[in-house]
Amino acid sequence: MVEISASILSIKNEEAIKTLYNLETAGINYFHIDVMDGKFVKENTSDRMIEYCEYINSISNLPLDVHLMVDDVKSYINSFLAFEPNIITFHLEAGKTKEEIFEWINLIKENNVKVGISIKPNTNIKEIYDYLPFIHMVLVMTVEPGKGGQELIPDTIEKIKELDKYVKENNLEIDIEADGGINTENVSLVKEAGANIIVSGTAITASENFKETVEKLINN
Fold first, then answer.
1. Judging by DSSP bridges, how do beta strands 175-179 and 137-141 pair with one another?
2. Among 127, 108, 128, which Cα is nearest to 117's?
3. Dihedral sign computed on CA atoms, order 199, 79, 90, 170
């Protein structure tokens, strides 16, 4: 059974509390927190995501799935640890050295939070293999990170397949999360490729019936 991590990137501030509540009652498994710094990607969502995390922690017990699209990974890890997330994911491309990446992995784990590493569509999947025994999840971006509402890049499906094959061959216990342009029409491709956590934003939040859409994402 796949799990659904609902991206709250596109929800309107004035409707945030109501929308967050409606997402939870629709049967999602995680709130996906898209944290952008205006440097690693163009948009800056940092303040808004901190505000939304505060809302969620006051009204919900659902776990937070924090996705850092930032340059200064260490300071953002420290900022979002305050919300006691289930997992913090950073981008492989933000690391300058292996030592730095392992420092971030250890910092997150020392705080009893799961670790995810994300890769952009153009990054070779093999670049992440050395870190797999030490982390809990790989987030494969199926669009270029930075904004919601994009169309899924077909080549990224092969990347998920390759990762899934490697994980199984090496008996690794790791989640594969896919994020970007996933909707009820193409979700089956992503699931068949090996992803077991699906990030979906506008496909849910722009739909008329959140619960129905979540059920289709799980069952299609």
1. parallel
2. 128
3. negative
With b for 16 or more beta-carbon neighbours within 10 A and e for fewer, the 120-154 pattern comes to bbebebeebeebbeebbbbbbbbbebbbbeeebbe
For residue 63, which of 23, 95, 98, 91 has the smallest C-alpha distance? 23
Distance CA 209, CA 96 (A): 43
Does the model's pTM come out above 0.90? yes
* Active-site residue identified among 34, 37, 65, 164: 34
Residues 87/137, Cβ–Cβ less than 8 Å:
yes
pLDDT in tens, 165-190: 999 999 999 999 999 999 999 999 99
Contact 180, 199 (CB under 8 A): yes
Q: Report d(CA 62, CA 75) in Å as an integer.
A: 24
Second CATH level (architecture) for the domain 3-219: Alpha-Beta Barrel (3.20)
End-to-end CA distance of the chain: 11
User: Using CA atoms, how far apart are residues 20 and 9, in angstroms rounded to an integer?
Assistant: 11
Q: Which of 37, 65, 164, 179 is catalytic?
A: 179
Instruction: Reply yes or no on whether 34 is catalytic.
Output: yes
